[in-house]
């Protein structure tokens, strides 16, 4: 792969496999973390909350064809959402009409719940025909409002990972075939941009708690384009491979159908020296919160890229997709994904239950884009 001067600068900034730099003393200690939700037998990899307080999570099945993919937390327990049928997919069923493998969710600016289904039954598996999709759910009626098929932008190596809104555009990262998918919600048109650009490609194996993670075949894991955020004014797109660092590009270069990837590449900038990351969130003032899966902490990244530690605690094992609520609380799911067989070399699960979603009062206003 081509090594650029910027790439060399990144290596000098980050070090190899280090826990991160430019971070000073923690703003909060573990006593400020409030456990909100726990499960004695389920593994989740994110959380989102509606304006009226309903909480949802995507779940990772630990047994083939068993367990829920999307759940709403009710009375402290997750319940299949929007119904059992959408969570009952098994090999041989139509992958277009049920959740095969939910990877990311969020409340959209319209108040609906939006869900990315990567459409592949296992990590590293090829998406099934019709399986990769973005699903819009009306939470008032608890029913599917619309399905956006993603097949046209995903090949056998594709792994649609996460997504963000920018007006009527949706940006989705492809962590399998490194690149970004741009979806026009009005037309349903899909475009790929920055395919195989070096900023989209993981430069080192994924790590968690200081060790290299391996798939169920024992191969070191490389998760490419993954975390992403859009600035409050909609003009800047932030993104990274799972192992960082965090880059930025003006959204106009993503939205311009006439621009070539060669032209887009000229506008990619290093934004912050993040490290191995499970998930992010962004506040209305442009501050990005990003997890550190090795040092078990959450980083606070200012709009100028300055990075500091927000909170660090041994319970924050693989913090995944976070969420900021209307009361200024940061919801922090300690997902323990690095302890699951899919990331633990196929060995028996080392997850220590209960899995927990914490809340930290940071006094930030949420950004809904």
From TrEMBL:
InterPro entries the record matches: 6-blade_b-propeller_TolB-like, MRJP/yellow-related
Alphabetical list of Pfam families matching this protein: MRJP
N-terminal signal peptide: 1-22
Keywords of the record: Secreted, Signal
Main location class: secreted
Subcellular location: Secreted
PANTHER family in the cross-refs: PROTEIN YELLOW-LIKE PROTEIN, PROTEIN YELLOW-RELATED
Protein name from the UniProt record: SMP-30/gluconolactonase/LRE family protein
């Amino acid at each position: 792969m081509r090594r650029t001067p910027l790439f060399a600068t990144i290596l000098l900034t980050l070090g190899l496999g280090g826990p991160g730099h430019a971070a000073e003393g923690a703003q909060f200690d573990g006593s400020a973390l409030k456990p909100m939700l726990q499960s004695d037998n389920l593994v989740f990899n994110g959380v989102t909350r509606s304006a009226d307080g309903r909480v949802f999570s995507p779940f990772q099945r630990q047994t083939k064809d068993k367990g829920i993919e999307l759940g709403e937390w009710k009375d402290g327990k997750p319940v299949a959402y929007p119904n059992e049928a959408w969570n009952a997919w098994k090999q041989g069923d139509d992958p277009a009409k049920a959740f095969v493998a939910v990877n990311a969710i969020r409340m959209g600016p319209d108040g609906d719940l939006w869900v990315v289904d990567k459409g592949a039954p296992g990590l590293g598996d090829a998406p099934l025909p019709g399986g990769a999709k973005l699903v819009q759910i009306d939470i008032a009626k608890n029913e599917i409002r619309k399905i956006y098929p993603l097949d046209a932008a995903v090949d056998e190596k594709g792994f649609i990972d996460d997504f963000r809104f920018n007006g009527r555009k949706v940006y989705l990262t492809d962590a399998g075939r490194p690149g970004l998918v741009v979806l026009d919600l009005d037309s349903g048109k899909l475009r790929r941009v920055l395919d195989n650009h070096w900023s989209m490609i993981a430069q080192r194996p994924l790590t968690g708690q200081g060790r290299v993670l391996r798939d169920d075949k024992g191969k070191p894991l490389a998760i490419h384009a993954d975390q992403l955020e859009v600035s409050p004014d909609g003009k800047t797109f932030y993104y990274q491979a799972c192992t960082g660092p965090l880059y930025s590009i003006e959204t106009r270069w993503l939205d311009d159908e006439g621009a070539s990837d060669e032209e887009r590449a000229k506008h990619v900038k290093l934004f912050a020296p993040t490290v191995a990351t499970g998930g992010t969130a962004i506040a209305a003032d442009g501050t990005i919160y990003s997890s550190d899966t090795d040092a078990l902490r959450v980083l606070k990244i200012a709009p100028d890229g300055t990075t500091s530690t927000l909170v660090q605690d041994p319970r924050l094992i693989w913090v995944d997709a976070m969420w900021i609520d209307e009361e200024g609380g940061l919801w922090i799911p300690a997902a323990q994904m690095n302890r699951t067989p899919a990331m633990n070399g196929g060995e028996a699960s080392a997850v220590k239950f209960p899995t927990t979603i914490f809340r930290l009062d940071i006094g930030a206003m949420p950004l809904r884009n």
